[in-house]
Amino acid sequence: MRQVALGAARRSSTERSAEGWAPTTPAVGAGGGSCTATRHPARGSQSSIAPVTGDDAELLARGAVEVLPAGELERKLALGRPLRVKLGIDPTAPDIHLGHTVVLGKLRTFQDAGHIVVLIIGDFTARIGDPSGRSELRPMLSVEQIEENARSYQEQAFKVIDPDPSRLELRRNSEWLDMDMTSLLGLVRTTTVGQLLERDDFANRRARGEPVSMLELLYPLMQGYDSVAVSADVELGGSDQTFNLLLARDIQRAYNQPQQAVLTMPLLVGIDGQEKMSKSLGNQIGVSDPPGEIYGRTMSIPDELLDSYFRLLLGSEPPSDLSPRDAKRLLAKELVTRFDSRAAAEEAEAEWDQVFVKQGEPEQVEEAQIESTDGIVHMPAVIAALFDVSRSDARRLLTSGGVHLDDQPIEDIDLPPERLDGRVLRIGRRRFRRLRVKR
After folding, report:
1. Distance (Å, rounded) from C-alpha 314 to C-alpha 331?
2. Predicted confidence (pLDDT) per residue in 44-90, tens digit
3. For the whole prediction, is pTM greater than 0.85?
4. Using CA atoms, how far apart are residues 164 and 170, in angstroms rounded to an integer?
5. Mean pLDDT across 201-212
6. Which stretch of DSSP H or E encloses residue 405?
């Protein structure tokens, strides 16, 4: 296997071998080829965990949608050694949102119970794109985009899981998936086309006469091989990943490995109250968003989502004595504290009150310099540049009354600079910039 250094969170192969984690080459089942992966036949020989009780399994499975097959997690825990608990994340966008933290939080629970977390950054599988829940082939990202996203994902994941290298292995699946043709053929021979087409996403598209690409058919195989490469005992994922996680068990068996237990977590619905949280749908709350943005977007979630947000993000129920608005305030404050600080949460709450309770402007408004051309400022261009929206969206905001200057709605496409200098431009309910015209 091609080894790649990944910084402090990754132990060297020498260290792993000294602990009884020496790599070997697994045999391919009926596939007839061979490919190199990391196996750990002596794993656990240097360490153990306390005898497992039913309460341990119940704690680790708490909040899960399914634990499959029945009894498998208990059998793994009964081995009496730290388990290798895998999660793969494809860096298809630069940010992690609260939906990702649901499964990352469960990963942290396994860490705190004494198990080894194997976090796989899917820099290779991101070139294909997970077809789960998709009705069409994802656009292909450049290597540069994937690498930039991977660095960001890693930093943000450490807001939830412990980066201590004694508790975490950080891997990239380009280490083993950048394989030769013989190895790829060996992997492909582990699975039939019929198995892959049973997947709901593929079956539904075929029923509608829509194409399914060979790349998409390969994705579950590659994700499954990740489990072979790291000798996963347990794999976590969202409930939309069940097919992929169970297929990985078949692939492990083909490579003569013990089959992993599968634990799936609920999907967090986005702030639109309709679809699962996704940056592509614009319904996300990012863990690296500014504190005011996290607080404000949390306050915008529909009341009916409060139970699931509290349960999945805080591990509790909303206090029964609080109104929905006050429960959202509590949730927003806790989330900002978790991903930033208590002081930032207090400041975000005070700013929210200033804007939405007292109907004023934030005490501190970021300044932005703008330029005029021939004595005119083109507002769609200014709005697009300052608030990261398209010019067509900026025009729609203007014509629909969604743009304000000092709390007065404006609809003009072009304005003289003297009308803008020093004034506060607002779009929506909580996005502000104080304009300064370049002289």
Report:
1. 8
2. 334 666 655 557 889 999 999 999 999 999 999 999 899 999 999 99
3. no
4. 10
5. 84
6. strand 403-405
Residue 418: other Cβ atoms inside 10 A:
11
Between CA 245 and CA 234 the distance in angstroms is: 10
Residue with tokens 């930039």: 148
Task: Determine the Cα–Cα distance for residues 81 and 84; give it in Å rounded to an integer.
Answer: 9
| 3-state SS assignment for residue 57 | helix
- The span from the CA of 326 to the CA of 333, in Å, is 11
Nearest to 353 by CA among 334, 331, 325, 324: 325
408 φ, ψ (degrees, to nearest 5): -110, 125
Level-2 CATH architecture, domain 367-437:
Roll (3.10)
* CA–CA–CA angle 158, 163, 166 (5° rounding): 160
Question: Domain 13-265 - what CATH class?
Answer: alpha beta
Tell me: the pLDDT tens digits for 397-433? 888 888 888 767 888 888 888 888 877 888 876 778 8
The Cα 101–Cα 187 span in angstroms is: 31
Query: How many other CB atoms sit within 10 Å of the CB of residue 248?
Result: 27
Contact between residue 267 and residue 239 where contact means Cβ atoms under 8 Å apart? yes
Which helix (H) or strand (E) is 148 found in, with range? helix 143-157
Average pLDDT over residues 324-331: 94
Break the chain into its structural domains and give their ranges: 13-265, 289-357, 367-437
Question: What is residue 44's three-state secondary structure?
Answer: coil
